[in-house]
Design a protein that fits this description.
This protein is mostly beta strands and about 500 residues long. It has strands at about 15, 25-30, 40-55, 55-65, 70-80, 90, 110-120, 125-130, 140-145, 155-160, 170-175, 185-195, 200-205, 215, 225, 230, 235-245, 245-255, 265-270, 285-290, 295-300, 310-315, 325-330, 340-345, 360-365, 375-385, 390, 395-400, 405-410, 410-415, 420-425, 425-435, 445-450, 465. It is built from no helices and 34 strands.
């Protein structure tokens, strides 16, 4: 059942007080809120947004009504037709779960929204994983819009992989929008089969997401999760992912998704377990510039003494095979005691090379060792020169108590991932903000966006160099992070 947003996007922009790095605050616009009332979910909660921009249209999708042990009542969406200045359309995807009022649906919940656009077909796509009452996932859904993301049709199912047991997780979708690519109009969805040890799989569509191929593994039968495919102008698809061996790795396809190479190492991961039991892990966030250089970022503590807090770090590649040394994004000094996590990295697709514009939204704790008094905030930082130098960090939202956000079996949650996108040279982002309620069993966790799209620092403002030397901690794999061989992330 489709319902209207509880906020209505015409509500005036609000100011949420923040603190932390630069001490700056920005006005925020409420984008959506949870209108559902089923007793099986936590209300009002919205979390885990993705965004995608094409031209002046920006679309976000997110979980609505979080279940404690996985998934949500529905997937919400919001659309801006002016690059994130205003958000004139919002709602909830039809046909997904019986918890949202869909008669005859076998699915109780849905999770992991990912937004894409097929420029050749003019179709917007949101992929998600529908969850049965048993909490297993037999398919990946793809919802389609042919009217500019204003309305959405019933979901299309991706065929299940050829496997004895299927239980899917962590989908991500992208389309080849390069008109000179031999595979222009191909769309690709990454997923993993948790029932097969998180076997990485890829499915392909060439008709605007109406039909999809049977998902296939890589040549190395790589295992991991959170793969984010990006497409180079020549049609090569590169998929960075978090592997099960404590690394960020990447695999590629040069034949339009007919086959996928064995994964290669981007870097080992060193991960500081975030305080307060917050649900987070070093999943990658990947984007690509106009020439096809891939940037991938994740949370990592290698640069901090005794691995005491996470920075956001990144690596880049022109071919998906050879990757640069890991560099630290200089949000604050190494001795700051601030912990950074859940990055949403964006690259302006109209910039390239040494002039590529990067923007990063992330969550952080002003004090890493905050114990039971953690306060969660949202930050933003940008680079005008492909990450060589960065401007001042800005606080977008917070502080939030962990009791202000949805509680899950893996800890309090704003999302396993967030996202940032570029439109007309400005960065736009949507993220979850929890506001204090009278009791810890009631919530007001909803989607917000900056009231004004965010600028990229100029060369004169970008005075903080990224560093890739002086590593203080041996990189020997995931630090205190939990292995995903025994943990799914729906």
């Amino acid at each position: 059942m489709r319902r209207a947003s509880g906020y209505g996007v015409a509500v005036a922009a609000v100011m949420l007080v923040g603190s932390g790095v630069a001490g700056a605050n920005v006005a925020l616009t409420p984008v959506s809120s949870d209108p559902f009332s089923n007793s099986t979910s936590q209300h009002a909660t919205e979390l885990e947004p993705d965004t995608f921009a094409f031209g002046s249209t920006v679309v976000s999708a997110f979980q609505v009504g979080r279940f404690f042990n996985g998934g949500s009542t529905d997937i919400g969406f919001a659309r801006s037709g002016d690059g994130g200045v205003t958000w004139g359309t919002s709602g909830f995807l039809p046909g997904l779960t019986f918890s949202a009022g869909v008669v005859g649906s076998p699915f109780e919940r849905v999770s992991d929204p990912s937004v894409a656009f097929d420029a050749k077909q003019g179709v917007w796509l949101i992929s998600s994983i529908p969850i049965l009452p048993s909490t297993s996932v037999p398919t990946v859904f793809v919802s389609r819009s042919t009217d500019g993301a204003r309305t959405w049709g019933p979901p299309v199912s991706i065929p299940p992989p050829d496997a004895k047991t299927v239980d899917l997780d962590k989908n991500w979708t992208v389309c080849d929008n390069h008109v000179d690519s031999p595979f222009y109009g191909h769309c690709y969805t990454e997923l993993d089969n948790f029932a097969a040890g998180d076997l990485e799989l890829m499915s392909t569509s060439n008709d605007g997401g109406a039909t999809w191929s049977v998902p296939i593994p890589t040549a190395g039968h790589d295992k991991g999760l959170g793969g984010q495919p990006v497409v180079q102008p020549n049609g090569t698809v590169i998929v960075p992912f978090e592997s099960l061996n404590g690394k960020i790795e990447a695999f590629t396809s040069t034949d339009g998704g007919q086959s996928w190479t064995r994964g290669v190492s981007v870097s080992s991961i060193r991960f500081h377990q975030v305080a307060g039991g917050l649900r987070t892990s070093p999943l990658p966030s990947a984007e690509i510039d106009a020439n096809g250089t891939v940037f991938v970022g994740w949370e990592d503590c290698r640069f901090r003494a005794k691995c005491s807090a996470n920075d956001i770090v990144f690596s880049q590649s022109t071919d998906g095979l050879t990757w640069s040394d890991v560099a630290r994004i200089p949000i604050d000094p190494l001795t700051s005691g601030i912990d950074h996590f859940i990055p949403g990295l964006a690259v302006d697709p109209n910039t390239a090379g040494a002039g590529a514009h990067l923007a990063l939204t992330y969550y952080f704790y002003p004090t890493s060792a905050c114990g039971g008094a953690c306060r969660l905030e949202v930050g933003y930082i940008s680079s005008p020169d492909a990450g060589a130098h960065w401007g001042e960090a800005t606080t977008l939202a917070g502080p939030m108590a962990l009791s202000d956000i949805a509680l899950t079996s893996q800890g309090p949650m704003v999302g396993d991932y967030i996202s940032t996108s570029f439109s007309a040279g400005k960065a736009t982002t949507v993220f979850a903000v929890g506001r204090q309620q009278p009791t810890t069993t009631s919530f007001d966790e909803a989607m917000y966006a900056p009231a004004t799209p965010l600028s990229v620092a100029t060369a004169a403002q970008a005075t903080h160099p990224a560093t890739s030397t002086g590593v203080l901690v041996p990189v020997t794999g995931i630090g205190t992070g939990t292995t995903h061989q025994v943990l799914r992330q729906e």
